[in-house]
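User: I'm writing a tutorial on reading structure tokens. Could you give me a worked example: one chain, its sequence, then its tokens, then a sentence or two explaining what the tokens reveal?
Assistant: Sure. Here is the example chain.
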Amino acid sequence: MGRGPWCSSVLGERVQRDEAKALDAILAHVKGTGVRKIYFSNDIDGTDAAWADATGTPEPDGLRPDFVVELIRRLGKELVVMGADVMEGRAAAP
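And here are its predicted structure tokens:
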């Protein structure tokens, strides 16, 4: 689980280590704002460096791809996803 600037305030340190609890906390936070329709933007820089070498600023201990996929699934089940994108990928060096 990543340690982005929002993580501590939304998830708390203990929840960050439990991906299922982290997903629940993220969804609860978003729903708590009253938002029902979202645009999901995933900056590849937040993905763990072991999984995303096609980034200029890899994140040690960042998000695992399985976590991001499950987050998208949960968002799609519980909210309306209006659109999505993945930012800052680059082609691998030859």
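What the tokens reveal: The mean pLDDT is 79. The two ends are 30 Å apart (CA to CA).
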